Amino acid sequence: MTEPHTPKPFRRPFRRRTLGLMVAASCALSVLPNLALAQGRKPPLTMAIGIEPLTLDAGRVSGGADYMFFGNVFEGIYSHDIDGKLVPGLAEKATVSADGLTYDVTLRANAKFHNGDPVTAEDIRFSWERGVDPKIRNPRANVILNNITDVEIVDPLHVKIKLKKPDASFLDNSDQYWYIVPKTYIAQVGDEEFARKPVGTGPFKFVEFKVRSHLKLEGFEQHWGRVPAVSEVTMKIVPEEQTRLAQLQTGEVDIAAGITPVIAPTLKRLASVKIASVPTFENIAIGINAAYSSNPDLKKPEVRQALNLAVDREALLKTVMLGYATLSGPPCAQGVEGCTKGNVPGPYAYDPKKAREMLKAANFDFSKPLRYVALAPGRAPQSKEIGEAVAGMLSKVGIKSEMSVLDYGAWLAMYGAKVKDPNVDLFFSTLTDYNPDPSGRITRLFRTGGVFSWFNDPAIDEKLDRINNFVSVDERRAFLNGLWTDLHTQAPQIILWSTTTIYGMSKKIDWEPSHNVSWPLLWNVKKTV
Fold first, then answer.
1. The whole model's pTM is what?
2. Which of 214, 264, 353, 394 has the smallest CB count inside 10 Å?
């Protein structure tokens, strides 16, 4: 038995907004005595977020926004620390067999669900069985759960997880793709009531959710190791960024999430607030409908490569993102397994002349506009502005485009639709995870039939089928180097960058946001008077 590996003169396309509302309102609220702190109790925390979760059921995670809830309320057998390194979660330890097919897991004796029930081996087995149950319709079951052939209960705190084939990503992905849920509670209340009143094991427990209003959580004092320093968290759902910032400035909220790069420099100059920024594994791109579009030109690799050559990423990084992002070569972020600089190609060069030549050689139909679907603000920084800027650059090589903008719910329904729309040619694309293993995102994004895949390439599919079939970490890393290189060449997207997440905070807040994630994990937030 061996211990598992632990992964150590382009014009601005938008109008700069002002913070006048924030300044005008800065004195609107009076300062009230903090009775909780005076009496030695933990203070409450209020945060303004741009979008709300689409589900509260840990077996039905829909999109990245849901992790604002799940990342704080649920856990897996393994977890990640604030630097993104793999650490034990609900498991005290795990060992893997030499053939990579059996994980021997010992659970923590002090791990509890929010209703007080202890976490046992029965819950681990039940969480797997529920996660692969067709009636649950778990959209992430293919990542690791479908590869499990059995969860053998050895004793109440000991299970053996048996896999169909080796999976080098298993423990990394168990954090996000296999949340542990309470067997006894769900048996008592049923799946629908569980989705309304979820019970997890995380640092915060669910209190209430009001659509388009707020999500309220309470600190879980009996957590095995990450007891929050705040008593409760109220996440106010505030779609408009200016309103979130005004609430931060007046003290109505302690933290404002979803700060765009254009606002960050102004916040830095304000005496009453501060910002925190961390790199993430959120990949931003313009997706290309290579598999389903009614425009046959997009099926040609040379056309997709030309689209990449037509975009000046350096200019966009400076003018749209103001430096709050890291350029990507393949569709992966630096630090993701196999995506190390020097072992994979760099970003496409900006070469509009070559782009035009390649398009003409491919007999591209310049008379037919490309139909682009943008994402409204709230989910990803500068989502609408990115689309406008890229459309302007494509026009310089003769490509016309027609842009429409969808709010988050409608965009996600389009992006992850089982039947992809042939009338969409280009679309804003973002996918994120908070661990360095790529298998969860890459299969969903590029495998034929993947939930977010608008691409179809049998050679890529064959490699994706083998992505986790390794015991040796070094062999797998070399394999991933080749896979990322192939995806760079096939260009299923106009590949842009990985984001930096920015938060605005009151000076009363002491918080280091977790690296690699684009949503807030709040167990380590401290608030002072």
1. 0.83
2. 353
